[in-house]
Amino acid sequence: MTRGFGRLKLLFVVVGLLILGGLIFVLRSNTLDPTVLFSKALCPKCNIIVVTLDTLGAKHMGLYGYNRPTTPFLDSFGRDRSTVFDTAIAQGSFTPTSHTSILTGRYPAENRMYGTTDKLPPEAHTLAESLKASGYVTHAVSAAILIQPQYGWGQGFDGFDERWFIDTVTNNDAATTFGLASDWIKANKKQPFFLFINTNHLHSPHTPASEAVLEELGVTPPLKIMDERDIVGPHLDTTGITQEDANIMKDYYDGTVLELDKVVKNFIATLDKEGLMKNTIVIFEGDHSEQFGEHGIVGWFGVYEQQIHVPLIVYVPGQKPRRISPVVELRSIPSTIRDLVGLKPDTEFTAASLVPFLTTKDAKGTVALTMHAFTDAQNAGMLKALLGKSPSVWESMKDAPPPLVRAVGDKPKDVWYSARSDHWHLIKNADGTLELYRVDKDPEETQNLIDKWYDLTVADRKDALQVFQKLGADIPASCGPYCPR
C-alpha cells in the first residue's frame, strides 16, 4: 500500500513538472513579452487600435450634448459598448503638439514640440516603440500632413502608410484612410498588432461632399456647397471673417463630421465581421477642435474649452459601458494601453493609467495642462497651405521651413498655458494676463472671474487653488483667504 502511494506521489510530481515546463515554454515562445501580467490585464494580448479623429471637438457630438445629429454612430458606440470620458483634455491645441502627448505620454514641451515645423526628437520614446519591444506588430495610417515620418512620427512603426488630403473640394480622406487600415488589418490579424490611424477629414478647410449632408443635419436653406477657401478669401490670418462666414464654416464642419461618422460605422462593422472586436481594444480620441467665432477666434488656435475639450471613447472587450466625469488628460493613453493588456508599466510614460476608472467607482481625476505656441512658420506656412488656393496642400507646404528638431531651450516667444480642473479653467495668455472660468457653471466661458476674486466664496477660492498651483500662476493684488500666492 505504501509502495503504491509512493508511485502515485512520484506521478504527481512528474506531471507537475511537465505542466510547469510547458508553461515556461509557452511564455518564452509567445510573441508577446513574457512579463505580461495575465492576472491583472483586462484584455491580455489584445490587439490595439488608436484612432485620432483629427479636429473633432467634444462639443460637436451628440454624445457630449450637441444639438445636431453629427455623430449618430459614435454616440451609440460610446453609449452602448464603451467607456466614455466626459472631460478629456488635449495637451496641445493643434495636431503636432497634441499628438506628442497621445503617442509619447509626455507634455509637448518635454519633447520640445511647439510649432508646426517642429520634428519629434529621435530620443523621444513613443507608444509604438514601447509596444514593438513587447512583441506587437506596429503600423500607422495617417492622413495628417504633419503626422508623417519626415516629422519624426515613424519611430517604432514597422510600416507607415503616408497619405494627406490633396484636393479638399473632393475630400475622400476618411474613406481612403480607413480603407487602407481595414486592408492592413485583414492581412495582419493573426498576430497581436498595434494600429494607429489619423483621419484628417475634419481639418480646415471644410468642404462636405454634397448638400444632402447639410440637409440631413437640418441646416437652414438655402444650401450651397462651395470651396471654404472662397469664404475665407484673402484673410489668411482669419481676421475680417464675419460671424455669418463663421456660421457657414461651422455648418461645413458639422457636415464633414457626419460624413466621418458614417465611415467609422463601416470600419467598426468590418472589425465585427472579422471577429476582431472580441480581442481588440479600440480608442477614439480627438486631438483638438476648432473655433467658429467663440472668443473672437476662427480656426484651431488658443486654449479655450471649445478648442481643448475632446472626445475620448475607450472600447475594451467584455467591459460594461460607463461614463466617467472627472478630468483626464490624453497623455494617459500610452500608460492606459499597457495597463489594459497587462504589460509592465513603461517608466517613460509619466501619466497615470486610466484603467482604475474602468474597474472602480472612486478613481480621481487630475488637473489637465494644455499649451499653445504661436510661431512665424506656423502662421506663414500652415495658414497659406490650408487656407490658400493651391490645389495641393503638400505643394503649398514645400516652401515652408523644413521640419527640424528644436535645440534644448529653444522656445517660442508667444506661448499660452491652460489648467483645467473639474470646476475651473485657468488660462495664462502669452502676455502674462490671466483668465479664470467656472466651467461647470459657465461652459461657454463667457464670464472671466479673474478680476472678481473677492466676489467668490471662500469655498470656491479654495477649490480654485489647484488650477493656480498646477499652472504656477498668480493673481494681482491680495486675494484674502485661500490666496493662490
Layout of secondary structure:
Blueprint: H1 2-29, E1 47-53, H2 72-81, E2 83-89, H3 95-104, H4 127-133, E3 137-142, E4 159-162, H5 173-188, E5 193-199, H6 211-217, H7 228-232, H8 243-273, E6 280-285, E7 291-292, E8 298-299, H9 305-308, E9 309-310, E10 312-315, E11 322-329, H10 333-341, H11 355-359, E12 368-374, H12 376-387, H13 393-397, E13 414-420, E14 424-428, E15 434-438, H14 458-471
Parallel strand pairs: 1-5, 1-6, 2-11, 3-4, 3-5
Antiparallel strand pairs: 2-9, 2-10, 6-10, 7-8, 12-13, 13-14, 14-15
Question: What's this entry about, in short?
Answer:
The chain is of the alpha/beta class.
What's the CATH H-level superfamily name of the largest domain?
Alkaline Phosphatase, subunit A
Oligomer: single chain
- State the helical fraction: 25-40%
- Strand content bin: 15-25%
> Main sheet?
9 strands, mixed
Provide the low-confidence segments as ranges: 22-31, 33-39, 166-170
The CATH topology annotation of the largest domain reads as Alkaline Phosphatase, subunit A
List the domain count as a whole number: 2
Shape: globular
Query: Could you give the distance between the termini?
Result: 83 Å
